[in-house]
Amino acid sequence: MKKFNRFFDEFLKKEPLFLNKEVLQSFYTPDDISHRDSQIKEVANVLAPALRMESPSNLFIYGKTGSGKTLVTRYVTSLMKKTAEKNKINLKVFYLNCKLKKVADTEYRLMAQLAKEFGKAVPSTGLPTDEVYTIFYEALDSQEQLFILILDEIDQLVKKAGDDILYNLTRINAELKKSKLSIIGISNDLVFVDSLDPRVKSSLSEEEVLFPPYNALQIQDILKKRSTKAFKKNTVAAGVIEKCSAYAAREHGDARRALELMRVAGELAERQCLEKIEIKHIDEAEEKIERDRVLDITLNQPKQFQVVLYAIVLLSEKRRNIFTGEIYEIYKKICSEIKLRPLTQRRVSDMLAELDMMGIINAKIISKGRYGRTREITLSIAQSTIPKIKEVLDKSFGLK
Ligand SMILES: Nc1ncnc2c1ncn2[C@@H]1O[C@H](COP(=O)(O)OP(=O)(O)OP(=O)(O)O)[C@@H](O)[C@H]1O
Ligand SMILES: [Mg+2]
């Protein structure tokens, strides 16, 4: 195996394209936030009176994914904290991403976490929830202070724990004597507030700030600034930023998607030992991200679901358009081959609807005249992803 002897030496000799890859990662906080001045001002205006210990409003921030909601909220609250420190105002900001498991799964857990923030230990189970509320309430109201609670992805919290928790939290607010509590809810589910109990809705969205998606030009700006820091000079070919922005703005201007595309394009170019990132790398990056997404979904689904997908993959090797009935037949065959008890056609239909929602297949209902209706299915993932899925599923079923 002599041919590999110098692999790592050669690697080190190559000039890397990246100066600092972290700049393109989503946890990185940029020092400059472009095109969000009006949202920054609106959020700041809602929160500012609290610094004078006037009753703050709750605030609901919403907008599509990648529109800068989390970034702006964290930025404004950190500025506010600086001012509070300078002026010896007792301000506490607590940021919670409600997608986090084990923290925001139940009302009890969330309240226990909040109590902990104020130095009160609450056992991880066992107390009546009311009592945990009291512990939190007393700790908060033990001195004059202002507490800003940011519940990011708040729709996830309500999905898991119901909206009672928001009702109870907003009610605490009215009972506080020395302290003040302000809740900032953030969501990319644009119809989320409408699904809430009307009392919770009016209290949470006393004030609302909408984050519109960026347009392609704004994304270009954001990308240019961050790419200059992320890549060495002259390593990004002309047109790459424009193409990347156009892709990220195709459905709605999503800055996260743009940054990810750019980072993956850089990694691909670097792996190919090239000196520049070219336009074709954006296409390759898009395919890779899509492939990783689909594979990730595939691997994390229950076995039955994987069999349905496998049946579709096998059938679509022969023909582009396939029908639900055919899928069910093949599904049953695979089940018997791998000794799995097949589910009813109805359940399989539900799984097809889910695959459709995930964007993995496209299902179109067509009428077959007096024979009723059926669904015509096509795979809607990149051609290059299909063999990979097959490989992963083969392995998962122990077929190869
Ligand atoms: N104006 C901007 N300037 C620089 N970077 C930005 C800007 N807006 C967003 N970003 C970056 O884009 C990514 C997504 O932004 P952010 O996390 O704030 O989106 P979001 O609206 O909270 O999305 P989601 O609803 O999916 O949580 C982050 O990496 C963020 O740093
Ligand atoms: Mg966010």
Protein described:
The protein is an alpha/beta fold. The protein folds into 3 domains: 93 residues, Helicase, Ruva Protein, domain 3; 164 residues, Rossmann fold (3-Layer(aba) Sandwich), CATH 3.40.50.300; 97 residues, Arc Repressor Mutant, subunit A, CATH 1.10.10. The chain has 16 helices and 8 strands. The strands form 2 sheets. The protein has a 5-stranded parallel sheet, with helices on both faces. Strand 7 and strand 8 form a beta hairpin. Helix 4 runs parallel beside helix 5, helix 10 crosses helix 11 and helix 11 crosses helix 12. Adenosine-5'-triphosphate binds next to helix 3 and helix 11.
Keyphrases for this structure?
binds magnesium ion, five-stranded parallel sheet, binds adenosine-5'-triphosphate, single chain, 400 residues, Rossmann fold, three-stranded antiparallel sheet, Helicase, Ruva Protein, domain 3, 12% strand, 16 helices, alpha/beta, Arc Repressor Mutant, subunit A, globular
